[in-house]
Amino acid sequence: MASCSWIMGVYFGKLVLLVLAFSEVTRAWSVAPQVPCFFIFGDSLVDNGNNNNILTLARANYRPYGVDFAEGSSGRFTNGRTMVDVLAQLLGFGGFIPAHAVAERAGMLRGLNYASGAAGIRDETGNNLGDHYPLGQQVNHFRDTVRAMTRMFRGNSTRAGDYLGQCIYYMGLGSNDYLNNYFMPTMYSTSREYSPRTYAALLLQDYSRQLTEVYELGARKVAIIGVGQIGCIPYELARYRNRSTGRGRSSGCNEDINKAISMFNTGLVRMVKRFNAQLPDAKFVYVNTFESSKDVAANAASYGFDVIDRGCCGVGRNNGQITCLPLQTPCADRTSYLFWDAFHPTEVANVIYAKKAYNSSSPSEVYPMNLRQLAMA
Ligand SMILES: *[C@@H]1O[C@H](CO)[C@@H](O)[C@H](O)[C@H]1NC(C)=O
Ligand SMILES: *[C@@H]1O[C@H](CO)[C@@H](O)[C@H](O)[C@H]1NC(C)=O
Ligand SMILES: CC(=O)N[C@H]1CO[C@H](CO)[C@@H](O)[C@@H]1O
Predict the structure, then answer these.
(1) For 59-115, what is each residue's pLDDT tens digit?
(2) What is the pTM of this model?
(3) b or e along 26-43 (b: 16 or more beta carbons within 10 Å of the residue's beta carbon)?
(4) Which N-terminal residues, if any, form the signal peptide (predicted)?
(5) Which atom of ligand 2 is nearest the CA belonging to 355?
(6) Residue nearest to atom 13 of ligand 3 (CA)
(7) Which domains occur in the chain, in start order?
(8) How far, in Å, CA of 115 to CA of 88, rounded?
(9) Which ligand neighbours the alpha carbon of 358 most closely?
(10) 62 close to ligand 3 (CB < 6 Angstrom)
(11) Among all ligands shown, which has an atom nearest to the Cα of 239?
């Protein structure tokens, strides 16, 4: 490497010095990404290690999590890459976006990942699993980042704002407000206090306020990820005693849960339209993972999946009652499973969802545009 750049230096002189200086600054990211930075807010679907050093059951920094990941058990709740890892690659980032909890200041210019397993829109969501960073705290972390970044732009907030406005923001919250709140009546009272419709409205009101804060801090290109079909995940199938039949999803999903989530998702689309109409320069996009996961389940075989109703790793009915335990042996054919554990998709499923978000031309999957177009917008 060193002698190579020395030889090139002889030939290209200043140009190479410039390139070397640039790669020093950008920490050797090799290709220019389509947007200068990528910030991630979310839950365990996209957490990449923020929960590793806190007291919580929502943690995945042990084997076999990460069994197919070059960096090993990083804290990602799957066997390999998450959806945002793949999106970072599709957006042309030469590497993954670092976890806020471990990132050094120099790393923040390319974006940070604030996602935390068990997190929801509501503060109390996920408390049954222990400590975590709810959306409110993730937004606080982002506020700190914006302050530090403004200092890096010599205190010029106009320049910092211009920079932040070109970046993409991934917002993936809401699943736990159903899983680890509304549909967990033994721990939470929300289902006794609110109808599914009122609860969805309440979540949307909270979410809208927090998204407006992220906008005010400088975000303009925001991808809002809908909640998936939680009524069909192995955990819910197991809870409602719908046993795996091996192939297909003939045992049926829990449609009560799916209906409640559809109300929330419908509200997200309205919110995206409202933001785009009302907030100057706002480019909000709705990524319909509910629709995408329906498509994947309905056409499982053509996507290469043999098993879509049980986890590749886990305990109990459908491998869906407890998540994958330390040192447990996962299934061998991980590319033929839709779910890695009771809650989380496998890497191959994450790749499908990321590609749809980035490149789908169907408005039922990405509205009003996909992330490739959002990057250019
Ligand atoms: C901040 O940056 C903008 C754009 O580069 C520039 O026009 C402006 O003069 C700067 N403001 C200060 C106070 O330096
Ligand atoms: C995106 O879609 C276009 C055509 O629809 C295709 O040519 C291209 O390869 C796709 N890109 C990715 C990264 O999937
Ligand atoms: C809760 C739930 O959705 N249970 C379903 C389990 O599967 C049967 C059919 O086998 C459905 O009738 C139930 O609705």
Answers:
(1) 999 999 999 999 999 999 999 999 999 999 999 998 999 999 988 776 789 999 999
(2) 0.88
(3) eeeeeeebbbbbbbbbbb
(4) 1-28
(5) 14
(6) 252
(7) 2-376 (3.40.50.1110)
(8) 15
(9) 2
(10) no
(11) 3
